Amino acid sequence: MDSISPLEQALHAARALVLADLKAVDVAEADVVSLVEESIAQRRWWVEQWPEGAAFVTGLVAQDVKDGILERYGRWPLCPVCGPGSGHEGPHALDVEPELGPDPHWVCSEAGVVVAPVGSLGTVAG
Question: So what's the pLDDT on residue 57?
Answer without folding.
Answer: 96
